[in-house]
Amino acid sequence: MRWAFAAACGLLVASAAPAADQVSYFKEVRPLFQQHCQGCHQPAKAQGGYVMTDHAGLLKAGDGGKPGVKPGKPAESFLLDEIQVKGGKAEMPKSGAPLKPEQYALIEKWIAEGAVDDTPASAKTKAIDADRPPVYSSPPVITSLAFSPDDKLLAVTGYHEVLLYSADGEKLLARLVGLSERIQAVAFSPDGKLLAVAGGDPGRFGEIQIWDVEKRKLKLSVPVTYDTVYGVSWAPDGSKVAFGCADNTVRAIDPLTGKQVVQMGTHSDWVLGTVFSRDGQHIASVSRDMSTKLTEVATERFIDNVTSITPGALKGGLMAIDIRPKVDKATTKVPDDEGGKFHEKSYDELITAGSDGIPRLYKMHREAKRQIGDDSNKIRQYEAVVGRVSSARFNADGSKFAAVGSLDGKGEVAVYTTAADKKAAKCEGISGPVYTVAWKKDGTAIASGGFDGKVWLHDPATGKLMKAFTVLPK
């Protein structure tokens, strides 16, 4: 037993710790389980009746009746049978590559040494799952929200969960409690049957969750990278889910299998937002590196910088991006890779915004050869909102968009007519910083939320506040 002093509190705390050459569960084994196992073995999706999110669960038996971990007895620990590579394959992980030999050996050694739980007392928290949902002492910060395509549901982020409300905010219908502590973004599939959730535990793991909306069941949990993930979006046909990562990559997965199908690493800072082109062939992404980049889905290849890359052209990072659902003309001419020749390309427009508070409308595909200092894809820039823009969304027909901004404890929700550079309406009754905005498909309301846990429902035509409610489940 080692003793550690909590200097800030003046308390003496005891915690079990392994000897210098002993394997640490908390530092070495637990991270392996987080990355490779917990997606399918957690309270929300206990495959085989086996939960691996805490030490006590590891010692229990699953549906097969055999204990997963038997301290001091690797030969009697069923977990090792499942992860051992035999003939080039392993039973677990079910999807994804088998653990490396050295990773298997580490787990085996930990079990042989007694499978000691050396989790520090300060890191132990009460279990949170559907049977024991989060208990709030104050409203959660709302980082993202989304209306379902049929306008019946409003998904709102909370702590460790997504809360499904009726679209008018009158009733809390479900609490989708998953593994991630931090929920960064939510998006309904085009048909509304699935909900994609991006989040994770900061500095430990990222996760994409796919929920069955009707059944309120977790269909898929995909651990990815070692930090939270952001800016989740769906391909128009629902075949892919894209997201941004703190390792500077843009990624996409198959929402049915969890298999990664896109990874692009040309950004030089965190990627905070993604959106697919209307034909699903490209992903546009925004980053703290002050750029909007275009990735070709089929080849996973970086194609172009949509925004200017000239130093000083943009003031600070970009956080918000959305694709205009409809444009005035169907095609535009873009240069071939060889240069000089042009071909027809689907005409897509993007709204991007970030630290300087100015929304800008861009053509997704370049029409002119790049020149130093140009910003030739830009169509229009708009009147700034308060502070930095963290979210911008078009209405269903692309004629309007809403943007939200925050600075020094204040927030603003503004509605724009896409064809004009001035605000069409400024929403009333905003009580604090705002981080997210969403449109009802029928165009009759926009929802926004932010720091103080309130959701505001406004009339986008006038900016009039129709309803406000506080997210505080009991």
Give an overview in words.
The chain has 474 residues and is mainly beta. The protein has helices at 25-36, 55-58, 78-83, 101-112, and strands at 2-6, 11-15, 41-42, 45-46, 145-147, 153-157, 159-166, 172-188, 194-201, 205-212, 217-224, 229-234, 241-245, 250-253, 260-264, 271-276, 282-287, 292-296, 301-305, 318-323, 331-335, 342-346, 349-354, 360-363, 378-381, 388-394, 400-407, 410-417, 423-426, 434-439, 446-450, 454-458, 465-470. It has a 7-stranded antiparallel beta sheet with strand order 5-6-7-8-9-10-11. A 4-stranded antiparallel beta sheet has the order 12-13-14-15, with no helix packed on it. A 4-stranded antiparallel beta sheet has the order 16-17-18-19, with no helix packed on it. A hairpin with a 6-residue loop joins β32 and β33 (465-470). α1 crosses α4 (101-112). It is globular. Residues 1-15 have low confidence and may be disordered.
What's a concise summary of this model?
This protein is mainly beta. It has 4 helices and 33 strands. The longest helix is centred in the N-terminal third of the chain and has 12 residues.
